[in-house]
Amino acid sequence: CECIPEYSGNPYEACRPECVLNAECPRDKACIRNKCIDPCPGTCGQNAQCDVINHIPTCSCLQGNTGDPFTSCRPIPQDTPISKNPCSPSPCGPNSQCQAPNNAAVCSCLAGFIGSPPSCRPECILSSECLQTQSCVNNKCTDPCLGSCGLNAKCLVINHSPICSCPPGQTGDPFRSCYPIPLPPPTAAPPTDPCQPSPCGPNSQCLASPGGQPSCSCLAGYIGAPPNCRPECIINPDCPTTQACINNKCTDPCPGTCGLNTQCSVISHAVSCTCLPGYTG
């Protein structure tokens, strides 16, 4: 898993944009389209300077200039004649327009701004100024879901942010496309094994015949017939008197039992060692 472009975080938990609120950016930046950027470009007018104070751009005319810093500042004339235009300079404040019918200033807010002069302002600067189900985009409170989620995905707005998810029964990337969860292929019933459980008894092996029937036989080293397979011997009396039961086998117990220059004889399964003629020990 990996976060989609322009999102960061742990993709196994949650990926998020660089910012949602201005407070997540430095004080000289604002959160615009989920990016911490300088809000000044395009905000102030000609011959005006822009200062960002607590994420909000503030425009002011350059020294020696006057006018509306949001539209245009002009040099202050050295010898200012008595103005006969009541709108020059404008008494209406920023984000407003001045008209002079009957030689009297009439102020109104510019299109797209609310309030009343001299306090005209945009509809919003921060998303917190909008309803919880809206976000501040281009100074307008709008539905942030539009165009945010992929095909067949659903969008919920939580604290001004769009949250995309696939609906129940679907999977995929909700930012690109959701599709129905494919059903698992039907599984065939496993064939029955006639040797599970084994009908052959202990010390035996079971093999399934081509006809599906169990075929029983004793394991190597065991005698008898299933289900009564048994070792060659368990105790010495199961063997001839000249042999002993060793590891369930009737074997000669002499090898390795007696010392050098001795002879070994087996009497009733027991080993008897004697020195050869002419030897003692």
| Percent in strands | 35-45%
Structural class: mainly beta
Number of domains: 4
What letter string, H or E per element, gives the SSE order?
Answer: EEEEEEEEEEEEEEEEEEEEEEEEEE
- Estimate percent helicity: under 10%
Poorly predicted runs are none
Rg? 49 Å
Biggest pleated-sheet summary? 2 strands, antiparallel
Mean pLDDT: 88
Please give the alpha-carbon distance between the first and last residues.
84 Å
Spatial order of the strands in the main sheet?
Answer: 1-2
Domain EGF-like: 83-121, 191-230
Keywords: Disulfide bond, EGF-like domain
GO molecular function: calcium ion binding
Protein name: EGF-like domain-containing protein
What does this structure look like?
There is one protein chain. The chain is rod-shaped, with a radius of gyration of 49 Å. The strands form 13 sheets. A two-stranded antiparallel ribbon has the order 1-2. Strands 3-4 form a two-stranded antiparallel sheet. The chain has a two-stranded antiparallel sheet with strand order 5-6. It is mostly beta strands and 281 residues long. It contains no helices and 26 strands. It starts with 6 loop residues before the first strand and ends in a 6-residue tail after the last strand. It has 4 domains: 75 residues, no CATH class; 41 residues, Laminin (Ribbon), CATH 2.10.25; 38 residues; 50 residues, no CATH class.
